[in-house]
């Protein structure tokens, strides 16, 4: 039985910031009330803090703490933590500008009735790990399987299995002990993969009790949804589904353009209403078919947990709310996406955003490690969970190869194993069981956050005082003069790699020798990031003939400007040698030199 003690409010001064705690205890011992303190590295907004909560340690019991940091109805941090010694520390969070309330709840559980931990992983494999059949050596697939084994999920939701399903199953089980082996189920049936392929797969270490039959109507088929009933070690069960929904109405691209246009004061090509309408082309109808028809037809009135993972090709309404309008890369854009809200309305938790509620600090990018991360946080892959006994412990999005794979030739053209990042979530299903058996995953804070850096110091040299030449360019549309015209909507672009392979150079004549402070290289601001320069060398010259190296550069696959300090160096010419760009090409929207004021 759970006993609730009335809330206890405690005020803590943080330089004008009011932090209060509403604390409840639920345990056999009604007198057990947790206390808490905030441990911060500063005394105001912007400080990084953790919640340190303390309860009563009891023999043969595990204490479940839930900490929540909120401003009104806006949640900024949330943790579910388990301990035997009565004390926990939350993950770090950043204090927002508004006053916050810290809520701490405590539930005491018998040590053999904590629950069953599960690690869930959702991933679109980009045509079975072959990069749309561009990578045909098999090495990427082998590394992909090695990475899957490193994550070691209990349930793996796969999109775009496309001929690699059995190879993945064999690779997952190679060398595994009998009690630790995976079973694999091809969910997309022959009726639906005859044209495109065996899209959806499900892999699991749990007992597969039943594979659900093909569901098809006007909006979805087994190409979009499939699943199974899985048995838990304690005799209970869960329902698990892999899913994929269409990319018609490109949520990422339209949002990217809107954020860029807002940020740089450019005319909008689409209104917010027109962007949101993209969800209604197909995705909303597909979501209703999945949530209101297919899943109920499989599980009936069974209230066991439902777990889903896959590629929705959709942005989250939780990320693009008013709360995060001014987060890096959002450009003031607020979009109440109707498709992902359907999942919330049907009781599903977006596990990544539940575990990492601050969308500015934890953008959770999954699109696209290969094509380029663009100007916005493109989060289009999800793990969902529903059920009264489900607890979300941690979630992360992976977009980089394992360190041991980064020495491979694959790392430069293909920095991750797919064009999608994966989502990894740890949950606990309350009930019989001893609880956690490994450390929950956590997301790295700030990954890809700082999308628009401040302008470099110095005087920006006007475009009218500059000239530009290049070793190669696309006639008519890629002229190097486009990189010095002061317009973010025009680009320098090299000729096709088959005509002019890298390295390429683009040189800016400053008109005279100047004392320089910095130079900004602005990648093109398009969703098509082909040509975005990733590696090269900045050089300078006084005469335009003899160039000397200043600094090697290695830049991310993003549209953020890349600034190079020149520290008062004197020169008339600045040259960028592009040694490697996406697709073997080189492109820039602007080169902006600054001289000492």
From TrEMBL:
Full protein name: Discoidin domain-containing protein
Signal peptide (UniProt feature, chain positions): 1-27
Comp. bias (Basic and acidic residues): 435-447
Keyword Signal attached: yes
InterPro entries: Endo/exonu/phosph_ase_sf, Endo/exonuclease/phosphatase, FA58C, Galactose-bd-like_sf
Keyword Nucleotidyltransferase found: no
Keywords from the UniProt entry: Signal
Cross-referenced Pfam families: Exo_endo_phos (PF03372), F5_F8_type_C (PF00754)
